[in-house]
Design a protein that fits this description.
This protein is of the alpha+beta class. The chain has helices spanning about 5-15, 60-64; strands spanning about 25-30, 30-35, 45, 55. It is about 30% helix and about 30% strand. A 4-stranded mixed β-sheet has the order 3-2-1-4.
Length: about 60
């Protein structure tokens, strides 16, 4: 599974839930995926900003 596939899947899932009032960041090696739930909807991006929760792992562990 590529980072693009993960980004697309997270974007689709984030659109299906109410904003959660915080930022959640996944750091997968050199790749970053941020879910910003602080606005009127959840926004998924590659912004590397401060987050309430950061999950750091490698691609292999995240994919499994």
């Amino acid at each position: 599974m590529s980072i693009e596939s993960i980004f697309s899947a997270l974007t689709a899932q984030a659109a299906n839930v109410a904003p959660f009032g915080a930022k959640l960041k996944f750091v997968l090696g050199d790749d970053v995926i941020l879910i910003d739930g602080t606005g009127e909807s959840n926004v998924v991006s590659n912004d590397d900003v401060e987050a309430a929760c950061t999950i750091t792992t490698d691609h292999e562990t995240f994919y499994s």
